[in-house]
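[step 3/7] fold_predict: job queued, chain A
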Amino acid sequence: MWFSPALRRGGEMLSPAPAHFDGPGGTQTPRPVIEAITGALANPLSNRGQVTVGERNADGIVTRARAAMADLLGAQASGIVFGRSATQLTYDFSRTLATTWSAGDEVVVTRLDHDANIRPWIQAAERAGATVRWADFDPATGELTLDHLRAALSDRTRLVAVTAASNLIGTRPAITEISRLAHEAGALVYVDGVHYTAHALVDIGALGADFFVCSPYKFLGPHQGVLAARPELLETLRPDKLLPSSDAVPERFELGTLPYELLAGTSTAVDVLAGLDTDAVGSRRERLATSLGALHQHEESLRTRIDQGLAALAGITVHSKAGDRTPTVLLTLDDVFGAQGTQDASRFLAERDVYAPSGSFYAVEASRRLGLGDSGGLRIGLAPYTSTDDVERLLAGLELFLKRAPH
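[step 4/7] structure written:
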């Protein structure tokens, strides 16, 4: 079975198992992924090559990981870049792209994004003398519209950094149309797909993304970052690198020795995703399409139940309202619960093995725009292992907490 040992305690399945609604911060690791990581470490490993067993093992792991992520993202394997995290990759590419900017150039960031797709661009623009322009979103609806983007674009825009899905409130902007507008202005598009990739079949060509970054640990894999781009675009970029290190794409952007064991885990995580629907057939990409389609139906059903359940509870404000969004819900509590209300609720639920964290989750600009300051709210996120029973326990736990309100 693919389930995570994290749902076990003392060698036995808990009854009931912990209900994890913390998936947007990182999913629980399936057993096959763990076995792939340990298997890589248990066999000979060396720097990549074709002479020794260790060299061939390392090379094969990297090759398979690029192919797996290409299948997952609808990309070319030769355009897959690995890094320590999505944040690290974005900083690396912001510094490299900024060498082509000058005074008068403009960079667009959005209020909806995780800070990892905001701060690197602001800092890079400041060093290059470029201007930062902000695309807003409507806090009443959670929507980032094309009009919001148009208001920030000009013929001096060099890059648009935008999220494919808000990790705070789940909003999924119309990335294909946003990319079209950005390209018409002559700008590149850098898409943060960290939250999006866990819930949708990615096709970077259809999205129009020039760069698309994600994190395998958000979709059952290990902690690392992955960036996809067209190989011909990567060929035009000259990052800082060591003299003897490879100048070939995509290795040009991978500094130092890759974490082979994590790459092995990433390949297996993609295979686990492709097998979520046991009836899925065809190529890995085709099986991913079938399985992620089934996952979408599963998560939408659970999200609908959560929305209905929350609507029946007094004392809650839901901030996830966009028409197109991931199964991610941010809520806050009435003032009667105090400034620490959602943190208290999170702890109350955790004592009952229901894990829903409270915070702004690095989406500090979005949290502030919603009027929540840096505190954010209680975030409920779904993952492939979330069950109907989990949802009922969450709603029952929240109802019980709300009954404890001071009168």
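[step 5/7] annotate
The CA atoms of residues 24 and 126 lie 31 Å apart.
The mean pLDDT is 96.
exit 0
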